[in-house]
Amino acid sequence: MFTPGNVLSWATFFPVIGSALIVVLLAAKFFLRLDKKLVDDGSRWIALVTSALSFAAAIAAWRMYDPSATGVQLVQHFTWIRAFNIEFYFGVDGISISMVLLSGLISFIATIASMPWWSGKKDAEMAGMVDDGHDDPHHPKHFSVRMVPGYMAMLLLLQTGMMGTFVALDMFLFYVFWEIMLLPMYFLIGIWGGPRKEYAAIKFFLYTLAGSVLMLLAIIGIYYNSAPAQLADGSWSSGHTFNLIELAKQGAAGQFRNAAPILGFSFAKIVFIGLFIGFAIKIPMFPFHTWLPDAHVEAPTPISVILAGVLLKMGIYGILRFNYGILPDATAWAAGAIAVFGVINIIYAAFVCLAQKDLKKLIAYSSVSHMGFSLLGMAAMTPQGISGAVLNLFTHGIISPMLFLIVGVIYDRAHHREIEKFGGLAQELPEYSAIMGLAFFASLGLPGLAGFISEFTVFSGAFPVFTTYTIISATSVILTAAYYLWAIHRMFLGKLNPVYKGYPDLNWRERMALYPLAVICIYLGFYPQAILGVINPALHALIQNIKPL
Amino acid sequence: MTDLIPLVEENLRSTAWFRPEAALTVGALVLFVLDIAWKKSAARVAWLSAASLVVFAAAAALLAQQPADAQALFNGMLANDAFAIFFKWLFLGAGALTVLITAQGKDFDASRVGQFYGLLTAVVLGMFMMASATDLLMMYMSIELVSIVSYVLAGFRRGDRKAAEGSLKYVIYGGVASGVMLFGMSYLYGLTGTTSLLELGPRIQAIQASGLPLAATRIALVVGAVFVAAGLGYKIAAVPFHMWCPDVYEGAPTPFTAFLSVGPKAAGFALALRFFLSAFAGPASPTTGLADALGGIPWPAVIGVVSAVTMTLGNLSALAQTNLKRLLAYSSIAHAGYTLMGLATVSAMGVQSVMIYMLVYLVMNLGAFLVVIWVAESTGSESILDYRGLSKRAPVAAVAFAIFLFSLTGIPPFAGFAGKWYLFYAVFERIPGPGGNWYALLAIIAALNTAVSLFYYVRIIRAMFIDVPYAEPAAMPAKPGYQLILGAFSVAILVFGIWWAPMIEWTRASLTLFRG
Questions:
Q1: B466 close to A (CB below 8 A)
Q2: Fewest CB within a 10 Å sphere: which of A52, A116, A527, B412?
Q3: pLDDT category, A226, cuts 50, 70, 90?
Q4: Are B490 and B48 spatial neighbours (Cβ–Cβ below 8 Å)?
Q5: B462 contacts A201? CB cut-off 8 A
Q6: What is the rounded distance in angstroms from the CA atom of residue B274 to the CA atom of residue B254?
Q7: Residue B516 counted as domain residue
Q8: Packed helices B19-37 and B113-132: angle between N→C axes, nearest 10 degrees
Q9: Dihedral of the CA atoms B176, B179, B180, B181 (nearest 10)?
Q10: How far apart are CA B255 and CA B100, in angstroms?
Q11: According to the model, what pLDDT value does residue B213 have?
Q12: Which 3 state secondary structure label does DSSP give A389?
């Protein structure tokens, strides 16, 4: 079923087909007066099956990808809007293939985590998962039983947007997918979120839209200053091109170096800044990070998983694809600033973590801190630095979903996340404590687990270029250990708080979501070459074009 | 007497290109007669609606047969070209949809619905003339035809204080604006000795070549052009001629508000494009599509400033609104600001972008107002508070409204993004040239405005989908007809947000502007 010519389209469009099926199901409910439970379960299964198929397609793409070949692979390419030379251009290279796999995996895990499966009725009642027809807006039920078809349709639409962003190689198509992610995310946080969901949702939406409007201007600017390129059907485009691969070639050849200045600034620099701010909001980079803690804290668990696991990666991916690829001169010019912002992200967020009382907020800020590693590594422009930066995207994309799932587990039981109020949980929930320990240690960079490899690669790549910055950043390892160990200490050790007596340990739904991630986390800790071997050639070629000033 | 005969012959010949307008004229009169004839009929609303749809259908049939060959009609008073025909289709669509909405709604007393249809047909006739006027006098005539009938319709709700206030404001502002416009026209005529838009350009160039005192003539020309622009700015509700807009929108019967927000605005843009591009711009370059402003008159700069101020003021004022009709009024002011960017670029792409934007805007704004009408029928209110929990009460209305609002924001994959994309692109075409920095600034202001506009559009979406109503609101009346229109509009917005080709081809084929 999957061929190199269609596998990326399947990976992208399976979820949206699922969304359409759910809409059909809703129409059927309206006309045939179907039972609510039937429709709810139906949309759950549609979501599970279509996101599993999308994940299967992502695995197939990973297997079909040939690391030794150069250039773009698994291409699907035809003209979409002739008048603007806009093409439908899907393909992957070393920058994006690992993100395709990650996005497929995390989407599927998030779908599993959206199911209200629990062994006993009593346990399910504890989480508010029993749908007894009473929905008091002031004491809402668990997100997995509220407006299920709408939730599933939005989740699937989000998955299509994410996958499409990573595989689109036409600037315009990329922008469309980038924006498609906004709407479902707004509704998923805003409708199924926590107490301050309205504020969090609008803040997320406004920050991201402000960034993407800047990005849109930069995209039009790049298009307008580009040279023609060959279209999918072999003819030449009239005037300009949206083709990201062609644009990267033109950028390397200096096409944008001498473009007419805008408002008195060099074209390449101002476009670089526009794009960079747009992507930095998504990363999120200090000082644009303030939407993230709000969004994470209010979002339901699977949405936090997707947010941390995939959405944050898009910022770095976009910078590599656009800024590094198309504007190498301006990138060399800005490298120092990127490194400084990276260091601020790492250190500042780590200090903020130390002060957090809410477990989910702690993990949200630790994401900000960890994304700083990628910024530092990619700013160094050394082969190790950039490999470490992208590997960090992947390992953080495995570890942070684990952390958020873990928060979800305890929140479903205790209905709060105050670290101080727990204590001695290890006695009552041993399996949970073990997996949480694993995730915490992976995140703080314990050797043998995935996080260590990427941190080490980043540091060793950045050290020759930014020695002082790297030394400063390395102190974050101590801070990270401090806030994680202190959290473990307060939550799991000591005397059991009697309130939590008799709490059920992990159930099968939670195990299904957590164990695969734990296995990958250990596997990558010992054999990072599984990722590095595939991504290295393209990444090292990418920084060849960037000559430091 | 001898020179009169060719004039008469020309007029007789021109009637062959005037059949849709003739159908509308006859139709308006017939509707008034039918209104009286069917006074006692029980199903008079249905019959009158059907009759006015027949009038629009007849005009559409005649318009479809009309060849698009560009030529002057009625001794240069009007012109027939593909550009005018494009806008005429928009007007017919807006008119017919307004009738469809009115027929199912409760905004009008059964006894007065016939008058409304007759007057609406007259407004559409006036807009037809606006789209094809090529003479200052004809411009004035057609604008007045649209305005005066609109004053009546804005105050159609008798005994309603808001309607009276809105209507009065409309009359006073309209009177001042058309007076200013006439004054500007008198300058133009005094300097050039012609009222024909096609003659104005060559005469202006001739004046500049003749060595008259330059500064004085230039000032007089600028004053003339700007004063005429004031009259047009009033029709499209551009700042600073926008003050009537929120009050009139709030006071008028909502179906007419919906019509007012798209029809006369599009007509104003059609006329503004024709006025400035025929009289004050050189021919567009065949390779780049860019044109120059004639005689060093800085009208593109004036339009650019008006555009930036209009969108900013419209969006900032909309932020604080709680009445949906007022909110949509300010949002329509902001959209006029975006669309003016297309005019400020003086290029073929700019004209095309205005046409695409007006086409998309018609669908999304009419759709948005239809939801407002529907909700007002159940709650009697247009306050945003009454939209709480709409997604539970009327999922179709809520989802469709969300689609229209996202499209108004200009987010892909909705059609509003296609419109905004074209406007931005037209502005970017100008950035490498002279004054490019100002165009860059305009693009940045428009981008920031997009982000601001999201804030108040999402407030409505939040009320519909997230907020919980204070008390259990009245159930929405079942309206299969409304649902059908909303469904069709939503599908259109989604389809044309992804598949632009038909819009692009239609507008590109309609770019021909008759230039003599």
A1: yes
A2: A527
A3: confident
A4: no
A5: yes
A6: 30
A7: no
A8: 170
A9: 120
A10: 10
A11: 64
A12: helix
Confidence (pTM): 0.85
User: Which of 146-205 (A) contact B at CB < 8 A?
Assistant: 175-176, 179-180, 182-183, 186-187, 190-191, 197-198, 201-202, 205
On chain A, the residues whose CB falls within 8 A of the CB of B468 are: 137-138
* Angstrom distance (rounded) from CA B342 to CA B331: 18
Nearest chain B residue (CA) to A174: B412
**Which residues between 223 and 252 in chain A have a beta carbon less than 8 angstroms from any beta carbon of chain B?**
224
- Cα of B141 to nearest chain A Cα, Å: 38
User: For residues B397 and B465, is the Cβ–Cβ distance under 8 A?
Assistant: no
| β-strand pairing of A73-81 with A86-92 | antiparallel
Look at B436 and A262 and tell me if their CB atoms are within 8 Å: yes
B434-437: list long-range contacts, CB under 8 Å, 24+ apart. B435/B300, B435/B301, B436/A260, B436/A262, B437/A262, B437/A263, B437/A264
Element (H, E) at A74: strand A73-81
Where do the domains of chain A lie?
7-70+92-132+144-544
- The kind and range of the H/E element at A81 are strand A73-81
Tell me how far the alpha carbon of residue B308 is from its chain's centroid.
19
- Residue among A175, A201, A214 whose CB faces B412 most closely: A175
For A124-139, b where at least 16 C-beta lie within 10 A, e where not — what string?
Answer: bebbbbbbeeeeeeee
The gap from C-alpha A69 to its chain's centroid, in whole angstroms, comes to 27
Q: Looking at residue A505, what is its pLDDT?
A: 85
Distance CA A492, CA A487 (A): 8
Pair B134, B72: CB distance under 8 Å: yes
Q: Which stretches within B66-112 are classed as H helix?
A: 82-104
Residue B281's φ and ψ, nearest 5 degrees, are -135, 145
Of B412, B443, B462, the CB nearest to A176: B412
Phi, psi of A165 (to 5 degrees): -60, -40
Q: Which two tokens stand for residue B212?
A: 């008259």
Letter string b/e over residues A425-448, b meaning 16 or more CB atoms within 10 A of that residue's CB: bbebbeebbebbebbbbbbbbbee
| In a domain? residue B515 | no
Q: Identify residue A98 by its one-letter amino acid code.
A: S
Encoded tokens for A432: 């949970």
Quick one: tokens of B259?
Answer: 């019509």
- Expressed as residue numbers, the domain containing B301 is 4-509
Give the minimum alpha-carbon distance from B318 to chain A in angstroms, rounded to a whole number. 16
Region at A133 (left for phi over 0; alpha for psi -120 to 50; beta for the rest): left
| Torsion, CA A18, CA A24, CA A26, CA A29, rounded to 10 | -130
Eight-class DSSP state of B91: H
pLDDT at B155 over 60: yes
B291 or B260, which is more confident: B260
pLDDT tens digits, B161-181 = 888 898 999 999 999 999 999
> How far is residue B513's CA from residue B354's CA, in Å, rounded to a whole number?
14
Q: Do B454 and A209 touch (CB under 8 A)?
A: yes
HSE, side-chain direction, 13 A CA sphere, residue A400? 31
The DSSP bridge pattern shows strands B78-80 and B71-73 to be antiparallel
Mean pLDDT of B483-490: 93
Domains identified in chain B, total number: 1
Of the candidates B412, B440, B444, the beta carbon closest to that of A179 is on B412
Phi, psi of A228 (to 5 degrees): -65, 160
Name the one residue in this structure whose structure tokens are 């959209």.
Answer: B335
Does the residue B391 lie in any domain? yes
Q: What are the pLDDT digits (tens) for B358-397?
A: 999 999 999 999 999 999 888 888 899 889 888 888 888 9
Q: What is the mean pLDDT of residues A69-80?
A: 85
Residue B339 belongs to a domain: yes
